[in-house]
Amino acid sequence: MKIAILGSGGREHALAVQISKSKKLDKVYCIPGNAGTDSIGKNVNLELDNFDEIYRFIKNEKIDLVIVGPEKPLVNGIVDYLNKKNIKVFGPNQKVAQLEGSKIFTKKICEKYNIPTANFGIFKDKEETFKFLQNRKMPLVIKADGLAAGKGVYICKDIESSKNAVIEIFNGKFGKADQILVEEFLEGDEMSYFVISDGLCFKSFNTAQDHKRVGEGDTGKNTGGMGSYAPSKLINKNLEEKIINRIIKPTLTAIKDMGQMYNGFLYAGLMIKDNEPYLIEYNVRMGDPECQTILPLLKSDLLDLIIASCSNNLKEKNIEWFEKKSLCIVLCSKGYPESYKKNIDIPNLQKIKSSNNNFIYHAGTKISDNAILAVGGRVLNFVSISDNYLDSRNEAINQIEKLNWKNGFYRSDIGFKVIDK
Ligand code: AMP
Ligand code: GLY
What we know:
The chain is α+β, with helices and mostly antiparallel strands. It has helices at 10-19, 35-38, 51-60, 71-75, 78-84, 94-101, 103-113, 126-133, 159-170, 237-257, 290-294, 302-310, 389-403, 416-419, and strands at residues 2-7, 27-32, 42-43, 65-68, 88-90, 120-123, 140-144, 153-156, 180-184, 189-198, 202-215, 219-230, 263-273, 276-283, 325-333, 344-345, 358-362, 365-368, 371-374, 378-386, 408-409. Helix 8 (126-133) packs antiparallel against helix 9. Glycine is lined by residues 210, 225, 283, 287-288, 290.
């Protein structure tokens, strides 16, 4: 089969590597891809916003199936657009992608279907929100409704910072805001829980934990993700039953009640307290960098699962995993998540040897005249697989130190909650 993957991050490189292990794959195209995906398949430099151009390319190349990596094209309706033209796509349609595209959409489902989540209020303007905030117990969490690349969430410790968040959101920092979400602050430990769904049935697709903050000890600014490990240490049979019965199943029922089907990966961002799960948010795709730690643990054929998912045939499939611990450290450009230099050479990269258990997924890289240049904030993902998180972390750090990239920085404490006790 000929497959196109949309996206250019570490997640998309990991997807490309994993599907290239399948006998069913003839050729993979990455739109637009990065320097890593270029060595597996063919990169095609098209804008993800330009659906017409993507369609023309897919049609001309006779591509059989499109896998959508990031959320933005899903929320903007690429699945509906391509399906109308009889192109098969792995990913949810625009209506159900609202699970990620609108936090208020998801909260309303939680309310109607009794899904455990933080208590919340929805407000229509600044004054109404300020009135609610008076004499509230802090901290409170204030959220912009729409996609904000992980930036539209404020955890506020006092009334001043709460008001500031409300003003920034209603003034349009994350796009036009007609509504705002105010939530109770949940205590506990976070966990990312994944399923793959074909619209009729779903299967669990492992767990992970990411580190979103830029600084050691989970401090400083939010980023796209500085590292992750899989599986989460929090998961157990009893917790998984609660997640499935109280969160995943009611959500998929809600989708069905809307006359819709969920096709693709579904990612539940959860808070776990005393072995009880609460939904923080949904994402309608794999996580990045969670994907880079989960896929190397997959024993089953990913492409086969994706094909089954697109033909409502997932029920027949058994998903098997290696019983190993996987850890990913993201090497970033100095300055990230604020401003950083672009087009910086990564001189030693081609000298780093990967093995079955240690490898690199590219993110913000491109090839230029046989050199590999850093073009993004998150540049390379160093992944290591072993029998324990500590060995995996040590080996990932070892590889980063070998690269010795002068323009890079990374967190050396990924997985600290499960390692440094
Ligand atoms: P979100 O984009 O909704 O995942 O929020 C980003 C991050 O903010 C989450 O990963 C949590 O660390 C934190 N967060 C969001 N909502 C809450 C909440 N109600 N209570 C505590 N932390 C939260
Ligand atoms: N790792 C967080 C995300 O993919 O949204």
